[in-house]
Design brief:
This protein is mainly β and 788 residues long. The relative contact order is 0.11. 4% of the residues lie in helices and 37% in strands. It contains four helices and 60 strands. It is globular. The longest helix is centred in the N-terminal third of the chain and has 15 residues, at 6-20. Strand 13 and strand 14 form a beta hairpin.
Length: 788
């Protein structure tokens, strides 16, 4: 997550207007009825990068595997978007093929080639949750293995041994599979550490056990697992928290493909491996018996060690910094627990590359006054990546490989002041020797990485991996927009087109739209994290940008100002579009004038936010109706202010700890509403006086969490749709809203965080955490006809 100034945000809003005039042609005609249509972004332009063509970003890519012989062939594992493959990644606009849409989870934590397969068609992906948005993700099902380059995949879980384990690293060597686990649904020592299979994944044995007497490897947290490219049997990992079970924290090496291990770290290294403080350890093993270990403590790089003899002896390297009034390292944002990448140069045993989170502001090292450009010419909170040379003396080992080649350490920089997106996750080299880097914005390539004359370019192509946690649909112009993790507020440029553009950068907030209060215009609301740069923009029916304003949110009447949440829920009134409600951590605030003024609605309850959106506001017959979710409770207001919200004491989930995730009103009946909690769905027909549990068979379909809900209404009948961590389900009025089935086809199994139904266009829009936005046309007929 990053912060960007209001000035930059306004420029982004205004810059979009010009871009819209050059929008590309819309996507092809919709496929057969009942099929979800991907809307993108694929990619999103004008993103948080520097000097990269079109400013391309798309969403978080956690891991990458480059074919060792074919430079154009690259596989990536998206945070929640599955495995993708490109065979023309050397082209200016690579094409990508999605490979795992039909798998039960698309949350990829690790991805590696099996070096024992000379055809390089065998890869193993480890399922793990590594989203920057609270580590949200799909089911942790173990491993996915392909032996034909990704055409088909087999789930391997060792008879259930790997289920619910978060896989952080994987090494595949024929029938021997080794994985590292950094956490689990049940965080106990019996569920984490290193696990090994000697029979192709049929069974797995825990190798990291107790004090390490059995295998040489003690129990504890293992953040990474890396193999030696020249010695397939040699693996490296680290262990922390081992001291709690009588073992030693440290770096460990195996020379028999993970069966037994030897501690190879020195006391100097061990001093940095502190249980409860160490938040990540990443390794890079080169082709010259060289090994690098990067240790992060309390969210920042704390130490970097190098071995030139396969881990027998180690030497500390200095830490990369730039001078921003004082030295600032690679983690100004303190996000090393996820955002730490490292790779050894394939040709020079002394050169290593390391990536952190974001660029610092000038003077950030001394607390301000802050400014851009910083000391290396960065104008934005973009990538923080360095090249190190261990042969040089301490204090002169590191140079930046982003931004200016005339500022900062001599030999650093790029030809064109270029930089990828922030929050680096993994790096590797392609067969041509170009550096490939993945981050929260996608995938990028650094040409000539050993020099300061190369540049960063996007190889995102047509990838669609955006984490959209809040989505809205403008029925006037037939386009979607939303709030995205780390890629701001992307806006679709044409109906059903996959090219989007950034209205705002950084982390996106909630999104809402009013298409009824101003004839011929729509009013869209969006913001950054913590309701920063909260804005309303005006658009015509051709999706032309007309103007914008920053609502003052001036508080009228008593009470404190809103306590803003990372994602603050917003709701536009269903009857009077000029009315707006926002849900703060200290109360509900209502505006009659599009956010210019607000009044606190009593009592001052905390509204659930950041990943959930439990506000429903206004319906036919009662524009003042207001439903709000607070923890596991529901509050209802049935009259105009100053009438208060009243807790529905009959709400069945109260007292269970089951968070209210979403609310929706029947647009034709203000007294009828549906509430989703993390594990149930409820219905009221009398404004909360009583409730009926309509969960029906939903929990029996598969273990899931309900995140969003929409009401689909038509003259022929009504239905309710829920978005879950494993797809979208529906129930109809004819079944009493209790018989649930999967809705439509073609939607990958990914977390669905938001749903938006537009009755006038009869379309259902889904915002997914990892595969962008999706559209289901003629939604009511699809729902009423059985979902297909």
């Amino acid at each position: 997550m990053k912060t960007v100034s209001v000035v930059q945000r306004s420029a982004g809003i205004l810059g979009l207007a010009a871009l819209l005039w050059a929008a590309p042609a819309a996507a092809a005609a919709p496929p057969s009825p009942g099929t979800w249509i991907p809307q993108g972004p694929g990619p999103n332009t004008d993103g948080q990068v520097e000097a990269i063509e079109r400013g391309e970003v798309v969403g978080a890519i956690h891991t990458v595997a480059a074919h060792p012989l074919a430079a154009g062939t690259i596989y990536v594992g998206a945070v929640n978007g599955g495995v993708w493959k490109s065979t023309n990644a050397v082209s200016q606009n690579p094409k990508w093929t999605r490979l795992t849409d039909d798998q039960q989870s698309n949350s990829i934590g690790a991805l590696e080639f099996d070096p024992t397969d000379p055809s390089y068609k065998t890869l193993v992906a480890g399922i793990g949750r590594f989203s920057s948005f609270g580590s949200t993700g799909g089911a942790r099902i173990g491993l996915l293995r392909t032996t034909n380059g990704g055409d088909t995949w087999t789930v391997l879980n060792g008879g259930g041994a790997l289920v619910d384990k978060n896989i952080s690293g994987v090494a595949a060597r024929g029938n021997v599979l080794v994985v590292s686990v950094n956490t689990a649904a049940s965080f106990t020592f019996s569920n984490i550490g290193i696990w090994r299979s000697a029979n192709g994944g049929a069974t797995f044995q825990q190798i990291a056990v107790g004090n390490g007497a059995a295998t040489g490897l003690p129990g504890g947290v293992t953040y990474d697992l890396v193999g030696d490219p020249n010695r397939p049997n040699r693996l490296f990992t680290s262990v922390v928290f081992a001291n709690l079970v009588g073992g030693q924290n440290g770096i460990y090496r195996s020379d028999d493909t993970g069966a037994t291990w030897t501690k190879v770290s020195t006391p100097a290294i061990d001093a940095f491996l502190i249980s409860g403080t160490t938040s990540n350890v990443e390794f890079a093993v080169g082709r010259h018996n060289n090994v690098y270990a990067a240790i992060a403590n309390s969210g920042r790089l704390a130490a970097l060690f190098r071995s030139g003899d396969g881990g027998t002896t180690w030497t500390a390297m200095g830490l990369p910094t730039t001078f921003e009034g004082a030295p600032v390292g690679i983690h100004p944002g303190g996000q090393a627990s996820i955002h730490l990448s490292i790779v050894a140069d394939p040709g020079d045993a002394n050169i290593v590359y390391i990536g952190g989170d974001r660029q610092p502001l000038g003077n950030e090292g001394v607390g301000g006054p802050f400014f851009f450009p910083n000391s290396i010419g960065a104008e934005n909170f973009t990538g923080r990546i360095f090249r190190g040379d261990a042969s040089r003396p301490a204090g002169s080992q590191w140079v930046h490989i982003t931004n200016s080649n005339s500022l900062g350490a001599p030999g650093g920089g790029t030809a064109s002041n270029s930089s990828p997106h922030a929050d680096s996750r993994e790096m590797t080299f392609d067969a041509r020797g170009d550096l490939i880097e993945t981050d929260d914005g996608g995938i990028y390539k650094r040409i000539n990485p050993r020099s300061n004359t190369g540049d960063w370019i996007s190889i995102i192509g047509d990838l669609q991996t955006t984490e959209i946690h809040d989505v809205a649909y403008d029925t006037l112009s037939d386009v979607a927009f939303g709030g995205a993790q780390d890629t701001g507020v992307p806006v679709q440029l044409l109906p059903s087109g996959v090219l989007w553009s950034s209205l705002l950068q950084a982390d996106g907030g909630d999104a809402a739209v009013d298409t009824i209060s101003i004839s011929g215009l729509s009013v869209r609301y969006s913001s950054n994290q913590n309701l920063g740069n909260f804005n309303r923009t005006f658009w015509d029916s051709a999706n032309n940008f007309i103007g914008f304003a920053f609502p003052a949110l001036t508080l009228v009447g008593p009470g404190p100002a809103p306590s803003r949440q990372f994602v603050t829920p917003l709701a536009v009134n269903g009857v009077n579009g000029a009315r707006l409600v926002l849900g703060a951590a200290n109360g509900v605030y209502e505006s009659p004038d599009r956010g210019d003024t607000i009044t606190r609605v009593l009592p001052g309850i905390a509204v659930n936010g950041t990943g959930v959106d439990p506000i429903a506001y206004g319906a036919a017959g009662n524009p003042n109706i207001l439903y709000v979710g607070s923890t596991d409770r529901v509050f209802v207001r049935t009259a105009a202010a100053p009438a208060p919200l009243v807790q529905s004491i009959t709400f069945p989930a109260t007292g269970t700890g089951a968070t209210v995730t979403d609310l929706v009103i029947d647009p034709d009946d203000a007294n009828t509403a549906f509430v989703s909690t993390i594990n149930a769905v409820y219905r009221t027909t009398n404004a909360g006086t009583s409730w009926t549990n309509v969960t029906g068979n939903l929990p029996l379909l598969l273990p899931l969490t309900v995140r969003s809900i929409a009401y689909v209404s038509s003259a022929a009948g009504d239905g309710v749709v829920v978005g879950t961590t494993n797809g979208i389900y529906f129930a109809t009025q004819a079944s009493g809203f209790t018989a649930w089935s999967r809705l439509g086809n073609g939607l990958p199994i990914v977390p669905v965080f938001d749903l938006y139904y537009d009755r006038s266009d009869d379309v259902l829009i889904a915002g997914t955490m990892g595969r962008g936005a999706w559209k289901l046309p003629t939604a009511s007929s699809i729902v009423l006809s059985g979902g297909l």
